[in-house]
Amino acid sequence: MAETVFAPWDDPSEKPLIRFRNVTKRFGDFTAIDDLTLDIFEKEFFALLGPSGCGKTTMMRMLAGFEDPTSGAIELAGQNIAGVPANKRAVNMMFQSYALFPHLSVWDNIAFGLRRESSDKTAIAARVDEMLKLTRLEKFARRKPHQISGGQRQRVALARSLAKAPKLLLLDEPLGALDAKLREATQFELMDIQEKTGTTFVIVTHDQEEAMTVASRVAVMDEGRVMQVDTPQQIYEAPRSAYVADFIGDVTLIEGKASARVSQVAPEAVETDVAAIAAHLPRSAQPNALGMWLHDKVLAPVIGPRVEPVLQLPAPDESEKASSADTPDAGIDIAWAEGQPPLIAIDADPALDGQTVKLALRPEKVAISKTKPDAVNVLRGKVIDIAYLGNLSTYHVELENGAMIKAQMANTRRVSRRDIVWEDAVWVSWTGTAGVVLAS
Amino acid sequence: MMRLSPFNIVSLTLGLAFLYLPMLILVIYSFNESKLVTVWAGFSTKWYGELLGNEAFLDAAWVTLRVAVVSSTIATVLGTMAAYVLVRGGRFFGRTLFSGMIYAPLVMPEVITGLSLLLLFIGLGVDRGVMTIVLAHTTFSMCFVSVVVSSRLVTFDRALEEAALDLGASPLDAFRLVTLPIIAPAVISGWLLAFTLSLDDLVIASFTSGPSATTLPMKIWSSVRLGVSPEINALSTILIGLVTVGVVAASLATKQSAIRAKRDEQTAARTA
User: Fold this and answer.
1) pLDDT in tens, A277-319
2) CA-CA distance, A223 to A35, in Å (whole number)?
3) Domain-by-domain residue ranges, chain A?
4) Are residues A202 and A215 in contact, defined by beta-carbon separation less than 8 angstroms?
5) Any idea which architecture A254-262+321-439 has in CATH?
6) Which residues contact A420 (CB under 8 A, 6 or more apart)?
7) Residue B193 lies in a domain
8) Is A28 helix (H, G, I), strand (E, B) or coil?
9) What is the assigned CATH class of domain A8-245?
10) Which of B71, B55, B51 has the alpha carbon at shortest distance from B205?
């Protein structure tokens, strides 16, 4: 079978499983969800990411049926589910607190939902055993929730919510109560189970790392609005707003005024230009056409092929070297501080010309060195702070005009042999495509 | 074990004596041979025998028990419902007023409750008897039940009910299968509270009973007005004994379940 990339959101013929259409939810004067439109597709692992109070939990509760939208429609498989009570929806939820029934055993907890819709004891028992196996809880079937550990409780909650084979599973901060190590293991377990069961998962989280790890797509939310919906890579590499760039991962934002770098001459014209300049150069002695013909036909076998003289331009002076020398004339220049060379973003839209923009730089894309590197964007600065993260170190560098920039480097050497320390004068540099330009 | 200082010993003795000396005297005199309550004439259990032969007392005890069981059961149902609505009903119009009003009988003088109930029954033309005592007891003990149950409901994780609904249970099933089993201890203690309140009550029962129904406290009260008899002492001793057994059993059961819960948690932590 041909390996196809899972991306139903790019396929216009694909019908979304869930569709939020201009959904607004108000609690009194407070608007929790503000005219939100969003599609979630079948078999997706969709993450709602945002700080607390951004409306992500409200969205989940509307999907589960615990809240109704003030206006707009929520469609599940093409049907408007507003007004359908929670107990009549093919949607199950895993609660943040797990909400296991303390008076029932693990087995009875998982069987609870199945017993509500069927009285076939053997079928229920088979399904519960299947769930226990899936979540590796066979040994704990007879225990009560307070007799098992936190990680096991989390798996019981998952098994219980999956038992009815819902079309959609909602996970509300499912790993919040687990410690870091267990959380990581559980993330992979969740992805595995999602793949095995083929259920659509919608996860709510404020942990961006968790969202990036598990999700096929992430919706970054703020104050009841979706700021961006994209794959984790796109969200990280191509954030569309300063908010998203800042919320996902670490970023340095530099504000400045954009000016287009569109060149007066096309790339071919540059070569002609070089020839034209060469024409004005002082001429050294050169053979004429007859001499060349003679050399090629007669002398070449004896004294070797003719050496073509190399056309050379005069060396550019220091001021030119920083920018325009070997950088393609595309994208924009960002004038960001008095007396500093403009920052160059080659892949930015030249239409931003004249606007105030923000350049978002990920620390790992900023290099730091003690000698001046050969790069498109090079700035001088001083190391103020070093955050040692084990595998990485983040350097906080103060530039000459007082602005701060973060640079990250892998610690390939032991700390004792590190050559950049506090107060060192350093160069920070990045390529013309490392930053993302955001219109503000 | 910590040694008690002389001061602590004195305080302890005084406190306990203050609480239990009257009861102790009552218990001792219940075994008195003499018919005169205040003169000791040797040990005897004859008053207990006389008590068993006293139809009036046994009738009163039976009435009291029936009234207590029926009224505390009705009060528990109504009190639990009221508590559920007040805690879970959200912010409906007049909620604060209702929650204030449900607690009013807690501080209302019994005489006033009894009198108003009497006036109501007369106004309605209801024949006073066991039924009216049951109604009256339900009225005043219901608010105690609702206080006990609502304090439990406040700490109850609402997500549990939502989980039940989410898994397809109807609201009624969610209450029956999840909420009720979890708040059961509070409901039971509410019932016990209502039961003992009904057993104890003299004032309200006196107002609302008729000639056909006499509860035990009323019977004791009326006999004491004619002079304290050793039979009353015997009866009271039995009541004290019953209450003691009940309290001790309840506290042992609570302690046992606490120990079991702790052991379970330790096992869980070990196997994790």
Assistant:
1) 555 555 556 667 777 777 777 777 777 776 665 555 555 444 4
2) 11
3) 8-245, 254-262+321-439
4) no
5) Beta Barrel (2.40)
6) A368, A370, A383, A386, A395, A426
7) yes
8) coil
9) alpha beta
10) B71
Closest residue of chain B to A144, computed from CA coordinates = B264
State whether B168 and A164 contact (CB < 8 Å).
Answer: yes
**Structure token digits, residue B154:** 């406040």
A157: closest CA of chain B, how far (Å): 10
* Cβ–Cβ contact A95 with B under 8 A: yes
Cβ–Cβ gap A87/B181 under 8 Å: no
The amino acid sitting at A356 is T
Gap between the Cα atoms of A427 and A253, Å rounded? 18
Neighbour count for residue A63 (Cβ, 10 Å): 24
Q: Which domain holds residue B198?
A: 71-219
CA distance A266 to A389: 46
Kindly report the number of other CB atoms within 10 A of residue A150's CB atom. Answer: 15
Dihedral pair phi/psi, residue A377, rounded to 5°:
-115, 115
Interface with chain B: mutation pick from A81, A93, A155, A162, highest number of B CBs within 10 Å: A93
Contact (CB, 8 A) for A76 and A21: no
Residue B145 lies in a domain: yes
B108 in any annotated domain? yes
- CA torsion, points A330, A336, A340, A346, in degrees to nearest 10? -20
Q: How far is A412 from chain B (nearest CA, A)?
A: 36
* Amino acid of residue A62: M
Domain at B78, CATH number: 1.10.3720.10
pTM exceeds 0.90, yes or no = no
A16-19: long-range contacts (C-beta < 8 A, 24 or more apart)?
Answer: A16/A40, A16/A41, A17/A41, A17/A42, A17/A44, A17/A76, A17/A77, A17/A167, A17/A168, A17/A200, A18/A63, A18/A74, A18/A75, A18/A76, A18/A168, A18/A200, A18/A202, A19/A73, A19/A74, A19/A75
The residues, ordered by sequence, that sit 6+ positions from A186 with a Cβ below 8 Å of its Cβ are A151, A154, A174, A175, A178
Q: Specify if B119 maps to a domain.
A: yes
Per-residue pLDDT of A165-196, as tens digits, reads 998 999 998 888 788 888 888 889 889 989 98
Q: Chain B within 8 Å of A93 (Cβ-Cβ)?
A: yes
Hey, what are B22's tokens? 């009257």
CB contact under 8 A, B159 and A96: yes
CA distances A100 to A57, A199, B161, B172, B214, Å, are: 19, 21, 10, 19, 49
CB contact under 8 A, B167 and A147: no
Mean pLDDT by 10 residues, chain B (272 residues): 83 92 88 80 86 86 92 95 85 79 84 93 90 93 91 90 94 93 90 89 91 87 82 86 84 81 74 57
DSSP letters spanning B222-255:
HHHHT---HHHHHHHHHHHHHHHHHHHHHHHHHH
DSSP category for residue A32: E
Number of domains comprising chain B? 1
Distance CA A61, CA A204 (A): 11
Q: Is A395 left (phi over 0), alpha (psi -120 to 50) or beta?
A: beta
A:B CB pairs within 8 Å = 81
For chain A, the C-alpha Rg in angstroms (whole number) is 31
